[in-house]
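Please fill in the sequence for the structure shown.

STRUCTURE ENCODING:
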């Protein structure tokens, strides 16, 4: 009988570099990316950490099948959560390599830049950014003209509002010492796309930053996930930063939904008065219910899309939201009357009451309705 020999694979070198790749429906792109990374990073101990938000196209399954054969490939499958920034943060925090990079799965980022970025960090830089806007870089065919305009405007806003000194703070392609991210991980926003901007403005000590030009290629397979909601979240992030983090992005979103609810309220009121022919009290009641339902649906779709309530929980959530808003209204009227008692200008009292009500509704619904 042949002797049985079990072959134990030699432990591979611990990676120096983790390449974190957030994915949503990128099953066709990841295998190509791994291939390109293998070539670009020859001689480097690297790994790829794909952070997939349970893509319907089965990206996680494809990546895990690769991981079963190649120890450089790892997959984090997140269920019930969505968000590019949050995925990148989780990927970076899951790494034990001293250096981490973030890049997109769709081949828009030029992997040939990775060795240069790595060299810059080995030579003492804390952060290396792939920039479309330093000499030699370009947004090539990767952006439509409207996206190009949007990207440039967002860049200008970031520079003015936050004093960020990067030529391309919107870039989703960078490499950083992991310890830098670990230090500020708790302060980073999980929403939106602006992970680099957020990291750079969160780190307070001076950093050595190197910017390297690259050409933003066009997407390989599939579609972009950057939509108007992402843009709204970006504006929210800027406001949140300007307020020194006092106002969370989620609150700003909640307040914007609330403002739209006022319009829904007025429209419903006129509808009930003029079209349904109700008396004022019933019309006002109808308008209040409409506005609360409107706010609930929008908050569930947008503000809390990462904790979206569905099925039976949609309805129980709606009931708790009605309850929260009713108490919020009592708080609103109470505070307004109290202020009006010693401050005769009605709009100041009214506005203070409304702000109180909004803060209360936000705080209470985040605990009762959309608890995490
Ligand atoms: N896990 C996860 N969850 N990944 C996501 C999500 C999400 O909710 N949304 C998008 N991604 C992944 C995509 O699968 C892709 O790998 C990467 O994030 C970038 O998404 P795209 O949809 O391709 O974004 P883009 O090309 O429009 O935007 C890119 O360019 C912008 C600059 O113009 C990104 O790199 C942005 O960060 C960058 O600001
Ligand atoms: Mn893309």
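FILLED IN BY: designer on duty
SEQUENCE:
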């Amino acid at each position: 009988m042949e002797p049985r020999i079990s072959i134990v694979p030699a432990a591979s070198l611990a990676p120096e570099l983790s390449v974190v790749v957030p994915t949503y429906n990128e099953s066709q792109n990841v295998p190509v990316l791994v291939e390109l990374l293998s070539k670009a990073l020859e001689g480097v101990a690297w790994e790829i950490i794909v952070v997939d938000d349970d893509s319907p196209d089965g990206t996680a399954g494809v990546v895990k099948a690769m991981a079963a054969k190649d120890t450089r490939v790892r997959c984090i499958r997140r269920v019930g959560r969505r968000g590019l920034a949050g995925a990148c943060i989780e990927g970076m925090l899951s790494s034990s390599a001293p250096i981490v990079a973030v890049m997109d799965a769709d081949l828009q980022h030029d992997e040939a830049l990775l060795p240069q970025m790595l060299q810059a960090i080995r030579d003492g830089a804390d952060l290396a950014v792939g920039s479309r806007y330093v000499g030699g870089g370009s947004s090539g065919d990767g952006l439509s003209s409207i996206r190009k305009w949007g990207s440039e405007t967002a860049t200008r806003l970031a520079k003015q509002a936050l004093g960020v000194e990067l030529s391309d703070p919107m870039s989703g392609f960078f490499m950083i010492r992991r310890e830098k991210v670990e230090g500020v991980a708790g302060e980073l926003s999980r929403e939106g796309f602006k992970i680099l901007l957020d990291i750079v403005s969160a780190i307070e000590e001076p950093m050595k930053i190197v910017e390297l030009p690259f050409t933003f290629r066009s997407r390989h397979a599939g579609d972009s996930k950057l939509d108007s909601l992402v843009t709204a979240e970006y504006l929210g992030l800027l406001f949140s930063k300007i307020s020194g983090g006092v106002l969370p992005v989620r609150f700003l979103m909640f307040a914007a939904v609330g403002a739209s609810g006022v319009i829904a309220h007025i429209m419903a009121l006129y509808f009930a008065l003029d079209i349904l022919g109700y008396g004022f009290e019933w019309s006002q009641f109808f308008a209040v219910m409409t506005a609360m339902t409107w706010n609930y649906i929008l908050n569930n779709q947008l503000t809390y899309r990462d904790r979206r309530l569905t099925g039976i929980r949609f309805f129980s959530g709606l009931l708790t939201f009605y309850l929260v808003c009713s108490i919020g209204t009592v708080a609103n009227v109470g505070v307004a009357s109290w202020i009006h008692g010693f401050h005769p200008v009605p709009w100041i009292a009214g506005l203070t009451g409304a702000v109180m009500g909004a803060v209360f509704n936000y705080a209470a619904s985040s605990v009762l309705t959309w608890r995490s």
